Structures are given as C-alpha cells and as structure tokens.
Amino acid sequence: MSWQEIEGHDKIAENFARAFARGRLEGSYLFLGPEGIGKKKFAFALAKTLLCQNLKVPSAGEAFTLEQFVPCCRCGSCRRFGAAGQKALPAGGKKKKASSAETVSDTAENPAHPDFFFVCRPPDRSTIPMELLVGAKEERMRSGLCYDLSRTPFFNGRLVAVVDDADFFSQEGANALLKTLEEPPANTLMILIGTSAARQLPTIRSRCRMVRFSLDEEALGKVLSRQGIALSADDLKSVLVAGGSVNLARQIQGEGLSAQRGKLQESLKSWLFSSGGNASEAVDLAAEVLADVEKAGKEPVERRARLRLLLTWALEFLRDQVRKYHRCEGTDISGAVRLLEDACDRTLQALEQIDRNALLPQIIESWAFDIDRSIHR
Ligand SMILES: [Zn+2]
After folding, report:
1. How confident is the model at residue 92 (pLDDT cuts 50, 70, 90)?
2. Ligand 1 centroid vs 94 CA: distance in angstroms?
3. Ligand 1 centre from 190 Cα, in Å?
C-alpha cells in the first residue's frame, strides 16, 4: 500500500513525515521530475495532510509513522479540501472569487480552501503571469499569491501554496517571488513543481529545497496500467531511460515506436559506416530526427521528451557497436572504438542540452555534424 495511494513515492513521503515530526519542514520546496508521475498529486496530498486540524506533532521521542502522516478526512479543513488533486471541480463549483491566484485555476482542481493556494500557467500563456503572483499592476501586492501568503491562516495555523509549471517562470515573475521564497511567512509551505533542475532559474533553485521524483520500472508500470497504457517490456525500458515521462509512454503506445527505433538505428548504421566525404548524410539524419521530434506535437515538453527518447536509442546503438568491436579479436580496433566512444560522449552531451533551454533543431544539427566530422574526417 503506498502513501495516500500515490504510487512509488513513499520514500519522499517518509522524509516529509520525519521533517514534520521534528518540526523541520522548510518553507520552500521544488518538486522535480518527468511529466505525469504524480508530483502534483503528491503536493496536493501533502497540503491536505499538513492543513488537517487533527494532524498532531508527536512529542519528543514518540514514534511517528507514515500511517499517521495522513489527513483525517473529517475535520473542517479536510472537508473544505475535498478530493482536490484527484478530480476536477464541476464547472461553477467554486464558492467565491477569493483572489486572482485562485481565479485562474477555476478550471483546475483547486479546492475552495482558505489556506490553500494553487497557481499554474494558463494554457494560453507562455509564462506564469505576474498578476497571479503579485497582483495586477493597479493592485500590486494587494492580491496575488504573495499577498495571499501574507494573510493569517484560517484553520490550522498554516498556509500552503502549490505553484505548478515552475519551468515557465519569467525572470520578472521569479524576481517577484524571490522574497517570499527566501523568507516565507512563518508556517507557510510553498511547493513549486517543475520538470528538471536545469529548467529552473538559478535564483529560484537556490532558494528551494529540491525534491526529485522518479519511478522505478515496477511503479511506472503500475501508474501506466492504471491509466490504461500498456507497453511492451522494451518500450517501458525506453521510456524509463528517456526519463520516465507518462506522456511519452502514452505517445509510444499510440504510435508503436519500436518500429521507429529500428528505423533510426538503421539510419545511424548506414550513416556511420558509409565512406562519408560529404555532409549530406548528416543533414539527412538530422532532418529525420527533427521530423520525429515534431511528430510529438506542439508542446515543448513533449518534444523534449521525444528527443530524449531518440537520442537514448542512438546512444544504445552506439554502445552496441562499441561492444561488437570489443568482441573482434586479433584486429586493431582501438581507433574505431575511440571514435564510437566519442560519439557516445557527444550524444550524452546532447541529452544534457535538452534540459537547458537550448533550441531542439540546434541540438540535433550540431550533434549530427560533430559526430559526422569526427567519424568521416
Ligand atoms: Zn482533517
């Protein structure tokens, strides 16, 4: 049985329970991990637990287990929180327009709870709008999340805020949040949710305790099957190696990517072992990879996940070749192996670049050209 029926993150729940029992919760956390593995669900469950009026700090020396670190689901706070994070509120189900921060998430799973605040990037915006954080221009600091967090808690002496889409802070938005992140009001817990550390502004990263979410093969399999996604063992491994995103798993299931992996590895083979001499093969390969990335849809996060998968397949292929060379006895293979190992390193480097804000076509092209130059020079 996993903590509050959230698959695969019991270790993290235990750490929070321990920190709570010792009175050592931080003010600001940054939850990081691939799409769809339960970060938001965990943040909402944690919020409901910490806001519960029946959650008591154990006295010194008293045992405190994960089973005790759960909301009672009966108190006033729990009832107001409801089943948030698990299902969407019915349209028009909100009681009041308490603040701009709440208003935007009318369509999200925002509980009508006076001590809980949820902010996310509206679908039509490229960043989290300033007004959600510090109020619109004409009422700066008189509404928005930072204002909400300066108020007195209603229920349990604590305020909790969850900011989803932390990958999409503008510099201005991040600056507006810095003071609150650095010196959160007493008994305030702020949870930011993003996909990777590299995508966070350094100013944000340095002010939050980072908590990394990931799923092992078994837990990911369970999460997927609960969502009706069935993958072959090979495909499941690919998804894990490419970071473990549930969205990626969903795409793979729809498209039968095993065939694509074969195709990509064939192209790599004919490219690497061709006599070379002109760069057109590298151009073709880069174009093929880019076209595959674009198939993943318009969302940058989906495209990054797809490129991660493709480069992971390329790496797998290159490493296989190195292994094959090592099995050839009696011939001098050191030169070829070195070139292939360089290509592996260059691929790992490209994988790292995906998470920094680099442009994907640029990553793909420079990856293909660099390898081409070293292999075919
Ligand atoms: Zn309760």
Report:
1. very low
2. 21
3. 20
Give 220-257 pLDDT, tens digit per residue. 999 999 889 988 888 888 888 777 888 888 877 776 66
Q: What is the 3-state secondary structure (H, E, C) of the chain?
A: CCHHHCCCCHHHHHHHHHHHHCCCCCCEEEEECCCCCCHHHHHHHHHHHHHCCCCCCCCCCCCCCHHHCCCCCCCHHHHHHCCCCCCCCCCCCCCCCCCHHHHHHHHCCCCCCCCEEEECCCCCCCCCCHHHHHCCHHHCCCCCHHHHCCCCCCCCCCEEEEECCHHHCCHHHHHHHHHHHHCCCCCEEEEEEECCHHHCCHHHHCCCEEEECCCCHHHHHHHHHHCCCCCCHHHHHHHHHCCCCHHHHHHHHHHCHHHHHHHHHHHHHHHHCCCCCCCHHHHHHHHHHHHHHHHCCCCHHHHHHHHHHHHHHHHHHHHHHHHHHHHCCCCCCHHHHHHHHHHHHHHHHHHHHHHCCCCHHHHHHHHHHHHHHHHHC
CA of 89 to the centre of ligand 1 (A): 20
- Ligand 1 centroid – CA 175 distance (Å): 35
pTM: 0.77
Question: 160 alpha carbon to ligand 1 midpoint, in Å?
Answer: 15
Q: What is the CATH number of domain 3-212?
A: 3.40.50.300
Sequence spans of domains, the chain: 3-212, 256-376
286 C-alpha vs ligand 1 centroid, how far in Å? 55
48 CA → ligand 1 middle, Å: 8
pLDDT digits (tens, 9 = 90+) for 22-47: 999 999 999 999 888 999 999 999 99
Tell me, in angstroms, the distance from the centre of ligand 1 to residue 340's CA.
58
Return residues with CB closer than 5 A to ligand 1 (ion). Answer: 52, 54, 71-72, 75, 78
The rounded Å distance from CA 152 to ligand 1 centre is 19
